[in-house]
Amino acid sequence: MRHGKKTNHLGRKTAHRKAMLANMACSLIEHKRINTTVAKAKALKVFVEPLVTKSKDDTTHNRRIVFSKLRSKEAVSELFREVAPKVGDRPGGYTRVIKLGSRLGDAAEMALVELVDFNETYNVSGDKPKKKKSTRRAGKKKAEETTAQPEEAKAETRKEESKAEEPKTDNKEDKKDE
């Protein structure tokens, strides 16, 4: 039974666990993505998301609360300066956990933890480059030919095509007349 089990202790004492999560959170804020085990990634997600929410409102009080958890001036300043403006309109879900498979040494399940708004591959909210219209090549050639020829040239080609379509007769009478 899991009665009263709110946190995953990750096989560590409280001080070690808090220090490890603070270090991982600082690395995540600095590098925008890190590789770790799935269990640590889930624990990190629970640790980081409230801090990112606090960073949306840049006040001295919020900076002190975040600093008490992270214990790194550089990480706090980067969180409030770079991360907070990007996630300002997002109502939550600032991190993404992508499972990568098992580690070779001990077969531990590995995961990639990343800040959602800093990934250009999956970024949906950012400015999307407009898709170019794909056209068929056959249609493209015909369009080029029609635009390249002026109206007079088109009329001449029609006349030539109609002459080519007329059947030629090999009557002896036509030859005698000439």
Strand sequence of the main sheet, in spatial order? 1-3-2
Provide the low-confidence segments as ranges: none
* Largest β sheet strand count, sense and barrel closure: 3 strands, antiparallel
Provide the structure class: mainly alpha
Whole-number mean pLDDT:
84
Please give the number of β-strands.
3
Helix run count: 7
How far is it from the N-terminal to the C-terminal residue, by CA? 112 Å
N-to-C series of helices and strands: HEHHHEEHHH
Outline, from the CA principal axes?
Answer: elongated
In terms of DSSP E residues, the strand content is 5-15%
Helix coverage percent of residues?
40-55%
What Rg, in angstroms, do the CA atoms define? 35 Å
Describe the model.
With about 180 residues, this protein is mainly alpha-helical. It has helices at about 15-30, 40-55, 60-70, 75-85, 135-150, 150-165, 170-175; strands at about 35, 95-100, 110-115. Strands 1-3-2 form a three-stranded antiparallel beta sheet. A hairpin with a 6-residue loop joins strand 2 and strand 3. Helix 1 (about 15-30) crosses helix 2 (about 40-55), helix 1 packs across helix 4 (about 75-85) and helix 3 packs across helix 4 (about 75-85). It starts with 13 loop residues before the first helix and ends with a helix. The relative contact order is 0.11. The model has no long low-confidence stretch (mean pLDDT about 85).
